[in-house]
From TrEMBL:
Domain annotation NADP-dependent oxidoreductase: ranges: 31-267
Coiled-coil segments: none
One matching Pfam family: Aldo_ket_red
Gene3D superfamilies recorded: NADP-dependent oxidoreductase domain
Source organism of the structure: Metabacillus halosaccharovorans
InterPro entries hit by this protein: AKR, AKR5G, Aldo/ket_reductase_CS, NAD(P)_OxRdtase_dom_sf, NADP_OxRdtase_dom
Protein name in UniProt: Aldo/keto reductase
Amino acid sequence: MINGLQETTALHNGVKMPWFGIGVFKVEEGPELVNALKAAIKHGYRSIDTAAIYGNEEGVGEGIKEGLKEAKISRQDLFITSKVWNADLGYELTLKAFESSLQKLGLEYLDLYLIHWPVEGKYKDAWRALETLYKQGKVKAIGVSNFQIHHLEDLMMSAEIKPMINQVEYHPRLTQKELQEYCQKHEIQLEAWSPLMQGELLDNDTLQSISAKYQKSIAQIILRWDLQNGVITIPKSTKEHRIIENASIFDFELTKEDMEKIDSLNENKRVGPDPDHFDF
C-alpha cells in the first residue's frame, strides 16, 4: 500500500519517482502558475510535470526556485519531468530542444524527459537523442508518452535502453489494461495524464456511491484507484485547496470490489487525441 505523498517507486534503472505529482497542462505563465507550484511544494508534493508545448517552462522554473526556498529543501528533493514536442523530434533537434527546456526551467538536469507523441518516422531518432542525454547524465530517466503497444515494440527493436515510463491518458473510462499489462511485462512504468478525464466523471453514479461510502470526493476516489492499480498520477490544479485535497488520498484504501466497479466503467473513451490518428 502506498502510504504517503512522497512515497516513490523504483523505475527499472533504479531511479526513484514519486507515485503522485502535479501537472501544469494549460496553466499559463504568470503568478497563478508560480503560486500553484509553491503551494504544491509547501504541502509536500515532490514531482512536477511540464512539457515544451505547454509554453510555461519558465514559470515552472520560477515556481520551483521560489518553492524550494520557502520549503527549505534542495533541488535533489524534487522530481522534474518535461517532454520534447513533435516539431523537435529528430536526433539533433531533440538535443537542442532539451537544452532549451533546461535553460527555461533554470535547471542543470531533468529527472525525466519524455517523447510527447509517437510521430511516425521521427521517434526513433529522438529516442537516440534521449539515450545520449541519459548517458551524459543530463537526465536521470527517459521515457515516452502516448505510445501504444505497437509503438513500444517498434521502438524497442532498435533501442539500446528501454523506456522507463510511458505516460498515457488513463482514467476509469480508458483503463488501458492491455497496454498496462504489456508495460508491466517489460518493466515500463505506466503514468496517467488526465486522470480525472477533465472533470467528465464528476457526476457518475457509480463513482458518487463509492465517494459517499468512503466520504471522499470523486476526484480522491479516482486518484486512489490510479495508485492502487500501480499507475503514477499527476493531476493538474492551480487552486491551493484542491492541491491539498487531491493529495489527501493516503488515509483510506478501496476494496477489491470497489476497484473492480471502477474498472468496469471502461468504454475505451478518450478526451485527448488518439495516438494512432493524431494529426501531427
